[in-house]
Amino acid sequence: MDNTASNTPDINELRSVPTVSVEEAGRYLGVSRAFAYSMVRAGDLPVIRLGTRRVRVPSAKLLAMLGVEVSA
Hints:
globular; Arc Repressor Mutant, subunit A; alpha+beta
């Protein structure tokens, strides 16, 4: 039994929210949580910092990275 479909992120869901967690962004990009955080540290994944520890990835920026047109 193959359950990849349930693990595949939905682009329409991404369009419906302003930001996602770094872990969620990693799933959209097809990379591990650890690699997604290393992308944040390297400045390769744009984030919004909320306080000293919490970071969120803007959905519009992530969609652009994925090559998906952002609708107005």
